[in-house]
Amino acid sequence: MKKLSDLLSSTRLFFALAALLLGAFALGGLFPQGLAPQQYQEMFGRVGASLVSRLGLHDVFSSAWFLALLAAAGINLLACTASRWQLIKTRPGVFLVHLSVLLLFAGGLVRGTFRTGGTLAMQTGETHGGYTLPQGGYVPLPFAVRLKDFKITYWEPEKHLVHALNDEAGVMETVEAEEGKPLAFKTLAQELKVLKFYPNFSIGRSGPVSLDDSRSNPALTLAAGKGKQVRPIYLFARFPDYHGTAGNTGVRLIYELRGGRVKQFESSIDILENGSVVKEASISVNSPLYYKGHRLYQSGFDEGNPRFSSIQVARDPSVPLIYAAFALLMAGLTLAFKKELL
Amino acid sequence: MIIPLTQKIYFFLYAAAMAIAISGFLLGQKWKLLYSTAALGAAWSANTAYIALRWYWAGRAPMSNQYESLIFLLWAFTGIYLAFLYYSRREFEWLTPWVAALALTGTAGASLLDRSISPLVPALQSNWLLLHVSTVMAGYAGFALSFIVGLAYLYNGSPERAGRRAVLDRLMYRGCLVGFWLLSLGIITGAVWANSAWGSYWSWDPKETWSLITWLYYALAVHLRRGRGWTGVKFAWAMIAGFALVMFTYFGVNYLLPGLHSYK
User: Fold this and answer.
1) Domains of chain B by residue range
2) Using beta carbons and an 8 Å cutoff, which residues of A are at the interface with B?
3) pLDDT at A215
């Protein structure tokens, strides 16, 4: 028993386990993680992919051998701390640091056992009473979430660009298009004027229409020529080969809808319990909502669908434990290093 | 106009700090070291002004890309050295040209990176950006100091320089401790920020993983020094190898292993 205790609390074991952990971290840090089996097969062949799967190399940080290594390191640290408990009097900083790392291990265990999280993929106006797990499956929430509104703001407005090109010279010229204004190409003799922008172009009963404001099928109509010779030209951002010839000049016009850089995206939500609104909130990146042990994070959007918002939901009871460990770690390091630094 | 000018000034002053010291060694005029240190102090002041001007111009802390973080790292590196030098009553002033050489090389390297001031992506619009990046970069600066001192230690290997080596050994360790304390704080602020922005304080993202590797490596180095007597040459080599790891975590991961930290 004494021998086992000595072994578990030995610094030699600590150095060995730390070296092994360094190797494992490096393996997980360098080896591509979480890819589909097909991708490993393409990279390493069938035998290699099978080995990757058996050794858990596709998911090192959840593999049995890695968790066993972490457990061994945790036991070693616990034994070291317990056998050197007098440090609390002689070197309290060192003791606190070791205690904090033990708390981190405990936090990791709580997280691995109890953390849940997934995605709420919502359209404005929808109400969801649960979220979808990454691996599939549905988890009900103790409340419902209604997406009232979703908006994306940009650092600069989107730009409508029209490129004139031919087969020989490639892109000859690019100009910015504005509704109702001429397209000021210097290299084209033909007169062109921008008539209308259709965010989501379609043909309705009375002609071209935009189905909604989403940029699902952006199109631009131009008027080419003068007086009675005017003919319309339709340019489609997603279908550059469709239409777009400028007369018989051999020049093609390509329409590009260049979106502005996203500044922020924000969901206005209602929290409902028993059908009644109990909380109204606005969540954006870096500003989550905390409600009844769940955190709701703004995580994504779809540029083609302005009504869509992706919200991450997480419930992690390990957070207080981890934050306490962080505080202990910094306090311990400060105490431990104070004399040597000052 | 004034921002690029400030950058040129501190680049010139780092070069001057090195040149003055080298000319002093060649001509046997050791008093020139004081002027070399003064030039380094002036370079650090100009570097401070550059960061402040960029901060004012951008309307946010200049920590959002590789270029801005590297400039901050070099500022912190020189600052930590000057602080140690001041509190030691200029005990190791002969290290100034070594420090100036690394700051100069880093500044020259930074000029190859994208220097444009861009608006922040939503994920970076947080006060945690300043706390997280500044503490991690200052941590790297501490490790950079222990690296340069480690090199100087190996260079001063002859027995008649025992006194100088004892000073270097102590400084090497102090640089390592400063770096370790700050890196710990940097990882913690990053975890708290990640929990607030992404819903998870740890995701095994490549940058997180390599930061943990760096942290564990230096934790081992401190244990080896305290528990196994790794001082002098052994510790100098440990600090040199450690800094290679820091460089991989800082640069290599950004370019080779894309992940949540791919802002460059």
Assistant:
1) 120-256
2) 11, 14-15, 18-19, 21-22, 25-26, 28-30, 33, 61, 117, 155, 261-265, 284-286, 288, 295, 297, 299, 312-314, 316, 319, 322-323, 326, 329-330, 333-334, 337, 340-341
3) 84
Average pLDDT, stretch A101-119?
A: 94
* Per-residue tokens: B36: 């070399």
Most B CBs within 10 Å: which of A35, A115, A321, A326, as the mutation test of the B interface? A326
ipTM of the complex: 0.92
CB atoms within 10 A of CB B158: 9
Please state whether B214 falls in left (phi above 0), alpha (psi between -120 and 50) or beta.
alpha
Would you place residue A260 in the very low, low, confident or very high pLDDT band (cuts 50, 70, 90)? confident
Tell me if A29 and B184 make a contact (CB, 8 A cut-off). no
Percent of chain A clearing pLDDT 70 (strictly above):
98
Residue A46 vs residues A43, A59, A92: alpha-carbon distances, Å? 9, 18, 54
3-class DSSP state for residue B141? Answer: helix
Confidence band, pLDDT 50/70/90 cuts, at residue A325: very high
Q: Give the minimum alpha-carbon distance from B50 to chain A in angstroms, rounded to a whole number.
A: 25
Q: Which helix (H) or strand (E) holds A255?
A: strand A252-258
The domains of chain A are located at 2-115+319-341, 116-154+262-315, 159-258
Check if the beta carbon of residue A225 is closer than 8 Å to that of residue A191: yes
Task: Name the residue of chain B whose CA is nearest to A11's CA.
Answer: B227
For chain B, residues with pLDDT lower than 70 are 1, 258-264
**Beta pairing partners, A297:** A312
